[in-house]
Write a structure and sequence with these properties.
Elements: H1 9-23, H2 30-39, E1 57-58, H3 63-72, E2 77-81, H4 91-94, E3 95-100, H5 101-116, H6 127-135, E4 138-142, E5 148-152, H7 165-171, H8 174-178, E6 196-197, H9 202-209, E7 216-220, E8 227-232, H10 233-241, H11 247-253, E9 273-274, H12 279-289, E10 293-297, E11 304-309, H13 314-318, H14 331-344, E12 357-358, H15 364-374, E13 378-382, E14 388-393, H16 394-401
Parallel strand pairs: 1-2, 6-7, 9-10, 12-13
Antiparallel strand pairs: 2-3, 4-5, 7-8, 10-11, 13-14
């Protein structure tokens, strides 16, 4: 087959899959053929982030500095480097975990529980104590899958309502400025984190990013002393977008969403928040339900007017001044204030766009191209009247590309450090 030269490193991967696709056993189903192709490509082949672009957070960075680094570099997470480890230490000793906006938000919320019990080390009137009075006491439970979720003693909107000045108080406090990211790392599910080896396969990578809910995967060499690459759901989506036009991709990508069983979640299960509810309610729901974002619905409850993701908590922590005139911050106030702030700062962001939508008869290729071009992580499915009836995430799409063979991972997870019952991060 004669094709144009690959237009990018990601497209080169697509051509490699195409070569494998053409020689795959003819008796295999299309799904089995894709699995077989991805199983034959090592993770080392995935286009590498330039070493200078692998952002690391030193363990002695404060929460304030950490949020600033993540926000400035427009990333969701970064590995924490142990500043006390020697330069020639192995990666297992050099890193102590991965920090993300969600983890920082979860830790701040967990302090309300500690403060309620008098163990947070902060006095009455402090930001943490104030957080208790606004949010109620948080406890943590572990699901059967091992993921930690939060549960609150107070589920009312009033409990999640804070004035605009609250975040100025929090972010100017010594507590926020002096707490080190290394001090909140606690115990992670993997020590220091789950990493791919360069010899692992694309199939392993894709399964971890979908079925096993990983959002990013560091790649290391066996016995190496640094992170060679970081593969994210977004980078996989870009790879797929670069494969448009190749026969193997078109055979899958031209399928309609409904043919692939998308959206996965039933409309009644869609996690959402109304425009007049407090914005902290949105972040609270994300943590409780284990989702990375949710739609903000209009007063009718039928149409989405915006989207809030877990990383948007950065705007509460990096630009608290934009809310100081608000007695309470509703989700609509949050959307309006952040959009105005971004426009004044001349920053580009998906936050400035209208809600990106699709319909069930769109193809998976259409969705991949939209998600990649808009640099977003979810798209909302609407009916002919524009009413929101579902959501499709990057993880959903990847999960439809591959399937896990029986006993595939074997002892892959052996040696994993269990998550302690009292873990909060």
């Amino acid at each position: 087959m004669e094709t144009d030269s690959p237009r990018s490193p990601e497209a080169e991967i697509g051509h490699r899959v195409e070569d494998l696709w053409e020689v795959a056993e003819p008796q295999l189903s299309p799904s089995e053929k894709l699995n077989s192709c991805f199983e034959d490509i090592p993770v080392a082949s995935f286009p590498r982030t330039h070493p200078s672009q692998v952002i690391e957070i030193p363990s002695d960075a404060s929460l304030s500095e950490t949020v600033e680094i993540l926000s400035k570099n427009k990333i969701l997470s970064a590995p924490i480097r142990n500043v006390e480890a020697p330069e020639d230490a192995s990666w297992m000793d050099k890193y102590i975990g991965i920090v993300e906006f969600a983890g920082i938000a979860m830790w701040l919320l967990s302090q309300s529980d500690a403060a309620a019990n008098g163990t947070a080390g902060s006095g009455i009137g402090s930001p943490v104590s104030n957080l208790v009075s606004r949010l109620g006491s948080f406890t943590f439970r572990r699901t059967s899958s091992g993921r930690v979720e939060t549960a609150t003693d107070s589920e009312s909107d009033e409990a999640a309502s804070v004035g605009g000045s609250f975040f100025e108080t929090l972010t100017s406090s010594e507590f926020y400025k002096n707490t080190k990211v290394g001090d909140i790392s606690g115990s992670f599910r993997w020590a220091p984190f789950l990493a791919l080896q360069t010899s692992d396969t694309f199939l392993t990578m894709l399964l971890l990013l979908s079925k096993y809910r990983m959002k990013s995967l560091p790649v290391v060499e066996v016995g190496g002393d640094k992170i060679e690459n970081i593969i994210t759901q977004s980078s996989v989506m870009h790879m797929l977008a670069e494969c448009v036009g190749l026969p193997w991709f078109e055979s899958w990508g031209t399928k309609k969403l409904s043919e692939l069983g998308l959206p996965i979640m039933k409309p009644s299960k869609l996690v959402k928040v109304n425009e007049d509810q407090p914005v902290l309610k949105a972040f609270q729901l994300m943590r409780e339900k284990g989702v990375g974002g949710l739609p903000v619905m209009d007063t009718s409850g039928a149409k989405a007017i915006g989207n809030i993701s877990i990383r948007d908590v950065q705007y509460l922590l990096t630009a608290p001044k934009i809310y100081k005139e608000h007695r309470t911050i509703t989700t609509k106030d949050f959307l309006t204030a952040v959009r105005q702030h971004l426009q004044e700062q001349h920053e580009t962001s998906p936050f400035l766009h209208d809600v990106i939508t699709c319909k069930k008869d769109d193809t998976i290729k259409d969705i991949i191209l939209k998600l990649d071009s808009e640099k977003i992580h979810r798209i909302y499915v609407v009916d002919d009247k524009g009413n929101t009836e579902g959501v499709i995430t990057l993880r959903d799409i990847i999960s439809k590309l591959v399937h896990e063979p029986r006993h595939y991972f074997g002892d892959f997870f052996d040696g994993v450090v269990p998550l302690p019952a009292n873990s909060t991060v």
